Amino acid sequence: MPTTEATLYSVESGAAWITLNRPENRNALSQILVTELHDHLVAALADPNVRCVVVTGNGPAFCAGADLKNQGKQTSGPTFPEVLQIIINAEKPVIAAVNGAAFAGGLGLVGACDIVVAVEDAQFSFSEVRIGVIPAIIAVVCVPKLGTHNAMKLFLTGERFSGTQAVGLGLVHRAVGKDKLREAVKEETDMIALGAPNAVKEGKKLVRAAMEQKPLAEQFATMEAWSKRMFLAPDGQEGMAAFREKRKPKWVTG
């Protein structure tokens, strides 16, 4: 895929890297950036050589949220909620490599991603309240991770918190030094590559399904049937054989 102005795209060792590339406006979510992010996600998820996707930013910020300077002047194209839904429903893991500040809608990207690695001094804020609005769209992906207790305080105050603090709040999995971000993300992508592609896909679906509010007996019945399918599937059989034979598995799916 050719390099475009608002985003950069590359594939490295089975990981598709999508870089928000408008550092002059802190990678704000303009229509062109949202459109290119959407298109790159679709391309990466359709590429059989891609096992996972990484979203990061160029410059000092990860993403400053909505492009307020051009608010109301957006042209037609994919919407930000559509991008978040692609990330959530993707059959491949999507990792956020948070290189710097993430405010408002930028935190929506963080909340939607499956794994989040951030630099320790990255600044985060649900800053909407400071301009008289609310983080309505991104609440869908952020409140489940923050919980109502933390979300209430952060949404009402708009206070800033660091990448290190975000780990304790449940938004970030790992906080590392600036010079360690790419290395830390590669550790995550390498671990994903060790698993069977179909098992990784089903594992992501499993987490979503386990969050659904259903009667306990129904949940256990669903999960028992799902478990049996996975054990009897080709990758499950190969994985158990490899374990018994003390060798690396040769995954059937891909």
Structure description:
The protein has 254 residues and is an alpha/beta fold. The chain has helices at residues 31-46, 80-89, 105-112, 136-157, 163-169, 181-194, 197-210, 216-232, 234-245; strands at residues 7-12, 15-20, 52-57, 61-63, 94-98, 101-103, 115-119, 123-125, 161-162, 174-176. Helix 1 (31-46) packs parallel to helix 2 and helix 3 (105-112) crosses helix 4. The protein is globular, with a radius of gyration of 19 Å.
What distinguishing features does this structure have?
254 residues, 47% helix, 10 strands, six-stranded mixed β-sheet
Order of helices and strands: EEHEEHEEHEEHEHEHHHH
Q: Which range best describes the helical content: under 10%, 10-25%, 25-40%, 40-55%, 55-70% or over 70%?
A: 40-55%
- Content-based structural category: alpha/beta
Number of strands: 10
Strand order of the largest sheet: 1-2-3-5-7-10
Termini separation: 21 Å
The largest sheet, given as strand count, sense and whether it forms a barrel, is:
6 strands, mixed
Our estimate of the beta-strand percent is 15-25%
What's the average pLDDT? 93
Q: Indicate the low-confidence ranges by residue numbers.
A: none
Shape descriptor reads: globular
Number of helices: 9
| Rg from Cα | 19 Å
